[in-house]
């Protein structure tokens, strides 16, 4: 009798997943996504939309748990390394730290490359942007680029007023983990500091470890940095897109069919994030201006000076990509 019961138990345990999805294929899998931004931030909203779409289209076979606020990895370099060894499944990161693993990505984030946001999106949605995304996987980095998100333009903010590059001399400026960005600040006469996660910038400024940082309006506002560094200079030096990355290992976890669904869902969240971005960029600017931040709009001459000082980066990081840079600059003209 005991034997019969045991056999019955084994039979039921084996058949449950078969009955559950009717095909006898894999049962459900839960994957993890890391995000440094808080709840309600445009990229976090897009992460949740991505998770929802995936759950819906895979009919529950794939669940994605979103961890926002940098609770899993406060530094994006840490999350990228975790993706590479298969310890993490997805990370929404900035393209800036990814360039350390896929150097070609520096080309699409060179300072003063785009005329405006529309220009950037025309490039990212066109053949160059899509090839760059594919290049992430082709590079053998263990990473897969699923789609881009908007992150607007980055600007310097400091504890003392900065108008032109002459005011940057000797200032310690926190940057993303990307040597090109460090070189950018050094060319302006400042000192680039890396290794500080975006969630730690506020305290690093408050404690005097750094004199400022650089970012877009929403991060400046949401991380509270505007309270510590209330001088914001609208120099718009870079437009660095966000990237939703997957670990290549996800393909083995979900199988070919659901992997295609995942890639499709990610692409579908791009326009949603861009819409949310436009709203938040405006509301964040309004919020910090109302809080008393001093915004300086550089003159055309000052902007030209920033631009000419950063020109050597095109030679160093754009070497071998001259045609692509020219094509980017001509896009939309
Ligand atoms: C923000 C990006 C975020 C980066 C952060 C940074 O959305 O992914 O981590 O900048 O400066 O704009 O580290």
Report on the structure:
It is a single chain. By secondary structure, the chain is α/β, with parallel strands linked by helices. The chain folds into 2 domains: 17-150 and 240-283, 3-Layer(aba) Sandwich (D-Maltodextrin-Binding Protein, domain 2); 154-238 and 284-330, D-Maltodextrin-Binding Protein, domain 2 (3-Layer(aba) Sandwich), CATH 3.40.190.170. 49% of the residues lie in helices and 17% in strands. It is built from 15 helices and 11 strands. It has helices at residues 2-21, 42-57, 76-84, 95-98, 117-125, 127-138, 179-187, 201-206, 217-222, 225-228, 249-254, 256-290, 300-310, 312-317, 322-330; strands at 29-35, 62-67, 90-94, 143-149, 154-158, 172-174, 191-193, 212-215, 231-238, 242-247, 294-296. Strand 6 (172-174), helix 7 and strand 7 form a beta-alpha-beta unit. The structure holds beta-D-glucopyranuronic acid (BDP). The site of beta-D-glucopyranuronic acid has 11 residues, from strand 3.
